[in-house]
Automatic annotation (TrEMBL):
Belongs to the bacterial sugar transferase family. It is found in: Cell membrane. One of its GO terms (molecular function) is phosphotransferase activity, for other substituted phosphate groups. The keyword Cell wall biogenesis/degradation does not apply. Residues 28-136 form the Bacterial sugar transferase domain. This is Undecaprenyl-phosphate galactose phosphotransferase. The keyword Cell membrane applies. GO terms for cellular component: plasma membrane. Pfam families: Bac_transf. Keywords: Cell membrane, Membrane, Transferase, Transmembrane, Transmembrane helix.
Amino acid sequence: MVVGAADVLKNDAELYKLYVANSYKLPPDKDPRITKLGHFLRKTSIDELPQFINIFKGDMSLIGPRPIIEEELKEYGDRVDKFLSVTPGAMGYWQASGRSNIEYPERCEYELYYVDHACFLFDLKILLKNIVAIFKADGAF
C-alpha cells in the first residue's frame, strides 16, 4: 500500500466519484493505493494468500461469498441478511464466473445464488474454476 493513499482518494473529488461510480473500485492505473509490486501481486492473485490464515482460524471458509467492505453492503438491499448469513470465503462463485469483469449488481446475484445453492459439488466446481482463473489471470486487476 502507498502511504496516505486513502487520503489521496478522499481528497480527490473526481477520483472518489470514479471510485463510487465504478462499484468501489478503480482502474489499476488510477488507484493510488497500489504500487508496482502490488499490481503484480494482484494480477497473479498472490495477494490473496494471507486469507488462508483466516481460513485456518475459522473466520473464513475456502469457498463462499467474498468478504466485502461495509460500504458495499447497501448493494445487497433487503437481501443483505441473506448475504451475511454465511461465512465469507477466499474463493467465490463471482470470482469463478469472471472476477472484476462482472459489474457489482451482477456480482451480488452470483454471491446470493451461491448462498441458495451451496453444496459440496458446487464448491468443488467453484474451486476448480477459480484455479483456472488464477492461472489465466482472467479478470484480475
